[in-house]
Amino acid sequence: MGLSDHCLDRDRIPRHVGCVMDGNGRWAEQRGMARTEGHEQGEHALFDVIEGALELGIKWLTVYAFSTENWNRPDDEVRFLLNFNRTILRRRCDELNEMGVRIRFVGRRDWRVPKGLIKEMDEAIELTQHNERMTLVVAFNYGGRAEIVDAVRQIAAQRIPARMINERTIARHLYDQEMPEPDLIIRTSGEYRISNFLLWELAYSELVFSDVLWPDFTRHDLFAAIAEYQHRHRRFGRVR
Ligand code: IPE
Ligand code: IPE
Ligand code: MG
Fold it and tell me: I need a labelling partner for 85 at 20 to 30 A (CA). Which of 24, 65, 139, 154 fits?
């Protein structure tokens, strides 16, 4: 099945797509495997989606890798996820760089994030900083509420007077100044919720929910989500 089978309008490709990569644990449990094997399998889905996004000319792709609430999982799963994210970065950073992908991260860099992972993140950012084909934003130790709290803290620390604070002020203090608001957010695994992803930024995003568990998700599911997006009529509160 090729791109044209999805009848996508090349002039209406979303600029920024966000993905809540959910369902790894269930994928593994259905096969009698450990949940961690679902996370491992999720790597293939991620890279297929990245390649699909590049094929379409999507400029920004944000993927939810670890939420501020995911610390509440069993210790061994948390440890696995921290190591696994570090390993992926180390193993595949050069490949992403060769594909012309610029890597960024959003989320809190607090004491819980291992130093080694932060080092790997900084190296990936630096290595890929001049790439222009697509920006891959990895939401790691990310929470939408934490992001807003962190923005408010910075605003308070700068003693910006209350009457001067507007929506632009908040937006200017979010984690990534350049990141445009997502046009489309995809959540997999048949769950119909946001789970604290990009709360501020998604005010007018189109939401597409897919029943596919993340490890089974492919670029064709991405294309199908974009086809659905192209059928939506975005009004931003106006009348047509
Ligand atoms: C998503 O898969 C990956 C992360 C949250 C890190 P899950 O691990 O949430 O898988 P399910 O939802 O339990 O199936
Ligand atoms: C959202 O999935 C977080 C990530 C995909 C990293 P969760 O599996 O953590 O969300 P809930 O618990 O189902 O809401
Ligand atoms: Mg889940």
Answer: 154
Q: Give the distance (Å) from ligand 2 centre to CA of residue 48.
A: 21
Q: Which protein residue's CA is at the shortest distance from atom 6 of ligand 1?
A: 66
What's the 212 CA to ligand 2 centre distance in angstroms?
15
User: Which residues line the pocket of ligand 2, CB cutoff 6 A?
Assistant: 20-22, 64-67, 70, 191, 193, 195
Alpha-carbon distance of 67 to 169, in angstroms, equals 25
Residue 179 has what DSSP assignment?
P
Residue 23 Cα: closest atom of ligand 1: 14
> What is the per-residue pLDDT for 2?
59
CB 134 within 8 A of CB 102: yes
Is residue 5 in some structural domain? Answer: no
Residue identified by tokens 């799963």 is 77
**What CATH number did the domain enclosing 124 receive?**
3.40.1180.10
Question: What residue numbers bound the domain in which 65 lies?
Answer: 15-230
Count of domains observed in the chain: 1
pLDDT digits (tens, 9 = 90+) for 135-186: 999 999 999 999 999 999 999 999 999 999 999 999 999 999 999 999 999 9
Residue 79 lies inside a defined structural domain of this protein: yes
